[in-house]
Specification:
Blueprint (H helix, E strand, L loop, with lengths): L12 H9 L37 H25 L3 H33 L10
Helix pairs in contact: 1-3, 2-3
Pfam families: DUF983
Protein name: Zinc-finger protein
Keywords: Membrane, Transmembrane, Transmembrane helix
Length: 129
């Protein structure tokens, strides 16, 4: 069996995911990954790594809903059965909590997904030509 060598450098996954979570360039870790709340820059301002290849699409939103739902649903049940607050108070607290957690997680998960794609040479991130 013949092994194919691409000659491309190793890209550590966990380091890239940490950098993406911090919303930094997955390549250098210095330049900002996002130019707005969720807009990925076309290229890193520091190392000039092209970032426009990403295909994050709806992945960050799905992961955000999954995480927020799995955190808030059991917490809602525990709070309701333990203290039995008024429904309007319960709704007010948990709706603010869900929105705040979603707004916190969404750009970080988008950065992590873009970094994962960069680390695994997906969607044109590995093209040298």
């Amino acid at each position: 069996m013949i092994e194919e060598t691409t000659g491309s450098p190793e890209r550590p996954l966990w380091q890239a995911l940490r950098r993406g979570w911090r919303r930094r360039c997955p390549s250098c870790g210095q330049g900002p990954l996002l130019s707005g709340y969720l807009t990925v820059r076309p290229a890193c301002a520091v190392c000039r790594e092209e970032l426009h290849h990403h295909r994050a699409d709806d992945g960050p939103a799905y992961l955000t809903m999954l995480i927020v739902g799995h955190l808030m649903a059991p917490l809602l049940l525990i709070v309701f059965t333990t203290w039995q607050p008024e429904p309007l108070v319960l709704f007010s607290i948990f709706s603010v909590g869900c929105v705040a957690l979603s707004l916190y997680l969404l750009p970080r998960l988008k950065g992590a997904i873009v970094a994962f794609q960069w680390s695994r040479f997906m969607h044109g991130f590995g093209d040298t030509a």
